[in-house]
What we know:
Blueprint: H1 3-10, H2 22-44, H3 48-67, E1 85-91, E2 99-105, H4 113-163, H5 177-182, H6 184-190, H7 206-218, E3 234-236, H8 243-250, H9 262-308, H10 313-322, H11 324-327, H12 330-346, H13 351-358, H14 367-393, H15 402-408, H16 410-435, H17 440-444, H18 454-474, H19 489-492, H20 494-506, H21 515-529, H22 538-546, H23 552-559, H24 573-601, H25 604-629, H26 632-657, H27 680-693, H28 710-742, E4 754-756, H29 757-761
Antiparallel strand pairs: 1-2, 3-4
Helix pairs in contact: 2-4, 2-9, 4-9, 9-10, 9-12, 12-13, 14-18, 16-18, 16-28, 18-20, 21-22, 22-24, 24-25, 25-26, 26-27, 27-28
Amino acid sequence: MKFGKELASQKVQEWGEAYMDYNDLKGVLKDISRFRRRNAAAQSSVPAAAETRKNSLKRRMSMYRAFSGLTNRGTPRSDHEDEIILVNAVEQEGIGGAPQYQTMFLMSSEAGGEYELVFFRRLDDELNKVVRFYREKVEEVRKEADELSKQMDALIALRIVVEMPSLDINADQTTDSAAIEANKSHMDAIQEIEMSGEEVIAGMGNENVRIIEEKTSNNFRDFRPAQLHMLYDVRVNIQPETPISTLKKILKASNSQLKYSLPELRKAEERLRKAFMEFYGKLRLLKSYCFLNTLAFSKIMKKYDKITSRKASRSYLEMVDKSYLGSSDEVSRLMERTEATFIKHFANGNRRKGMSVLRPHVKREKHRITFFLGLFSGCSIALVAAIIVSIHARNLLQHKGSDQFMENIFPLYSLFVFIVLHMIMYAGDIYFWRRYRINYPFIFGFKQGSELGYREVLLLASGIFVLALAAVLSHLDMEMDPVTRSYKVLTESVPLILISVLLIITFCPLNIVYRSSRFFLIRCAWHCICAPLFKVTLPDFFLADQLTSQVQAICYYGWGNFRQRINKCQDSDVYEIFYMIVAAIPFVVRLLQCLRRLFEEKDNSQGLNGLKYFTTVAALVLRTLYELKKGTTLKVLAAVFSGITTITNTYWDIVRDWGLLQRNSKNPWLRDKLLVPNKAVYFVAIVVNIILRLVWMQMFLDFSDSFLHRKAIVAIVACLEIIRRGIWNFFRLENEHLNNVGKYRAVKSVPLPFNHEVDKTI
């Protein structure tokens, strides 16, 4: 693999603008190469006579210099005689004390020297950009390390107080020495060392470790434990966000006083453990950033030497090595201290266990996933063919019970079709997110290594589809029992059994069928149900946008006589209210989420977004009333509100969620940055989104003469909406990814367990 592609595949996408622009510099080198080829071709066309006179003159001049003693003076050749560049660091004002690196090209007067001059100017710009960004990020992690050190001090003090409640946190350190000496064996288990004083024991032999342990034991009296009175200067921040805690905050009844109890200690340890893991991940990204950019400068300079037949790489790479990028070892030292601290205090000294947590293994594709995906897909095709053959062979479309089947049974199985279609669209989104290097695991907040790939999602979808198709094939029974005048109970219970199986698998606590992903989905669904009592994150409102109302199963088994396939739901006044409420739930959830973000983030755009969902709820209620009761007035109101909703939702999708239709962008009517190379894809997506947004009109059109059943048309419209949502998902996450790139957000922030009172007063 060429280095340009390797760099693109390994770099942190959110920091893409801060990396050395290798392709741009390689393009300048191509210009130099083309000029040299043209120049060589021009020189080869010089007349042979002129070339002969030129060679004769060179021979005479060389003979004259040889006899006149102008050569071979015996002076040693300097190592820098062949230097063609001079590199230096210039201190400039307003740069925060950081030097700016400049290169003087000494051969600019030669033919084509202007191209090489441009190359070194751009090279210097790239080096200054990389060094400046790296310095800023190192300064950030240094401040974060100081804050984590304070957090560890507070955790140390809390551990001591919880493990040894006999100690007085108000007493002076010297007065506690007797108690500490008396509890020496116990303190040895909870003894803590600040990050700045950690020693790296990795790589030490057993003898060295034993010597260190003996010194620690002999000098135990010299150990200075954390000052316990510092617990009065911090406030706890370890309560998980729940609906009850949110209500307490609203009522100003929350208690942030630190409780010296074991549960509080465990919560603080878990939160600080996650903070250390994210901090270490950021250090790894910085180390990779430093290595890749250093390697990029080495590669581009070697390519320059090869094209120009010069020797400039040594001087320039020496400057790179002396720069902050090549000389600073701050990140490596922080990584060593973080590893030692995490292993000692969060892994009980087990280095293998600690490093497996800090450096999780890369998820590998398994061959059995592909095998079962192909197996289930083949079974699905066979079952579809069997259903079609069975319908035609038994002439079920013309059966007198077919209409009853479509009204009551078909909507039950359409639920599974919607679920499978959602998963297929999500799998397609994952495929293209990975292809265009959109960091969807970070955006969604998946635990590292637990995110599903498109093959896993397709495997689950094909498995559900096989179960649903097998259930449909077993349910193609149009004949009643002539004696009981009813259908078989087992046959009519198949949809309910299938739903129960899916719910059992979803909530199964065993570590099977991608438990982490299932629990992540359950947690997001719970946040949606309890909106706005949870802080709104992107996965929450992303899931709320995917929800579709499915009330047919509850209605059929609750109000109807399922043994005779009779549905009495629409004859009930309770059903009408229930139908409207359930149909509006996803949009009400999004409305509440927007209101929560409006009050928390003070973002006026969230208010406009909430107004959009309010009009959507109004349109949905009017359309549902029209579907149930009919009437000209309801039809007009539903049409007006649906039109307003369609226009506002389409505008919000394209302009706000996708970031497109920017008039003054570099890409006309799109946006400045695009990840899909073919711009026509964006215009096609805009047109498709507008067309599929108009499917609400099917409710006001007369399909009585259509060859399709009304329930089938409703199912097709729902499938089109799912397809539209799948297209929306890709461009919505692309826009979110580009926003993260613009703000260089590559690591999620974890709330720390302790708040220092000093920090609050600043």
